[in-house]
Amino acid sequence: MSTLSTADAAGLPRPADQVWTTFLSALEALPADARLLLLLHDVAGASIEELMPLLGLPAAECRQRLEAAHACLRAHARHLGAPPACP
């Protein structure tokens, strides 16, 4: 029985592992409030209206920060291995 490994036989990272690492790197590049907004909205399904009091921000600012977080994730996805700067 083989063991689960994060590298293939040549010692290179598997594509799924590289994507996961890039995603985590993109999340870490976000400011804490943008990261929280993105995770609660996109993953947990919270609405902007639910998040406004949590962050103490108006709806427009929440949407702007969420849009910037999405842009950061897309930029990281386009630059696998060489992460861009995010807001």
Order of helical and strand elements: HHHH
Q: Quick one: biggest sheet?
A: none
The residue ranges in which pLDDT falls below 50 over 5 or more consecutive positions are: none
Q: What structural class should be given to the helix and strand makeup?
A: mainly alpha
The Rg value, from CA coordinates, equals: 16 Å
Give the CATH H-level superfamily. Winged helix-like DNA-binding domain superfamily/Winged helix DNA-binding domain
Amount of helix: 55-70%
CATH topology: Arc Repressor Mutant, subunit A
- List how many beta strands DSSP finds: 0
Can you offer a commentary on this structure?
This protein has one domain (15-78): Winged helix-like DNA-binding domain superfamily/Winged helix DNA-binding domain (Arc Repressor Mutant, subunit A, Orthogonal Bundle), CATH 1.10.10.10. It is mainly α. The termini are far apart. The radius of gyration is 16 Å and the shape is elongated. The longest helix has 20 residues, at 59-78. The chain contains 4 helices and no strands.
What distinguishing features does this structure have?
Arc Repressor Mutant, subunit A; 4 helices; mainly alpha; 63% helix; 87 residues
What is this entry, summarized?
This protein has 87 residues and is an all-alpha fold. Helix content is 63%, strand content 0%.
